[in-house]
Specification:
Layout: H1 12-44, H2 50-72, H3 76-94
């Protein structure tokens, strides 16, 4: 990805909050998708099992998070830092 010379990156702390919002949107979208897929299985007697739906959704989640991380960081060090920030946030939320 090429960055314009007059571009200023947002501070990582701001990108952290944007990432949290994006994660919420991803999870909301996956929740709706999962519900619709499960309804389709019941209504249309699909060959797809409930277990397969959850595997598909897990793959979609991994791809979405990977793409999100790539768009929110500049380099590997930032990726590590942002990942640590997200883990700490998740741990704080669990308490």
């Amino acid at each position: 990805m090429t960055t314009r010379s007059d571009c200023e990156h947002l501070p990582l702390s701001d990108r952290f909050y944007l990432t949290l919002s994006a994660i919420d949107m991803i999870e909301e979208g996956l929740s709706v998708f999962t519900a619709n897929m499960l309804i389709d299985i019941v209504e249309q007697e699909s060959d797809c099992s409930e277990h397969e739906v959850y595997e598909i959704v897990d793959d979609m989640r991994k791809d979405a998070y990977k793409s999100l991380l790539h768009t929110m960081v500049i380099d590997r060090d930032e990726a590590k830092t942002l990942t640590k920030m997200l883990r700490l946030h998740q741990r704080d939320q669990a308490e």
